[in-house]
Amino acid sequence: MLPLVGAELTPVQLYRLLLRCCRQLPTAAMQQHYRHAIRQGYVSHSDEDDPERIQMMIQRAVADAGWVLDKYNKKK
């Protein structure tokens, strides 16, 4: 479900992707925790202007989301 780490996403596309990824987490508590963290990260970085920094943050967020999903999917 996750795009390649090098894919060009806009911040809004990333936000939507990460919220969709939360649905794959096993419990409602985990889903709520990660939705809150995603929202906080999006709001706290909404004033970022540097396109290179934005793309770096997007790539990191996609990689981290993949790690979290793998971590919880291996426990099944």
UniProtKB/TrEMBL annotation:
CDD domains for this protein: Complex1_LYR_LYRM9
Pfam family, one: Complex1_LYR
Lineage, opening ranks: Eukaryota, Metazoa, Chordata, Craniata, Vertebrata
Domain of life: Eukaryota
Name of this protein: LYR motif-containing protein 9
Family stated for the protein in its record: Belongs to the complex I LYR family. LYRM9 subfamily.
Domain Complex 1 LYR protein: 11-62
Species per Swiss-Prot/TrEMBL record: Liparis tanakae
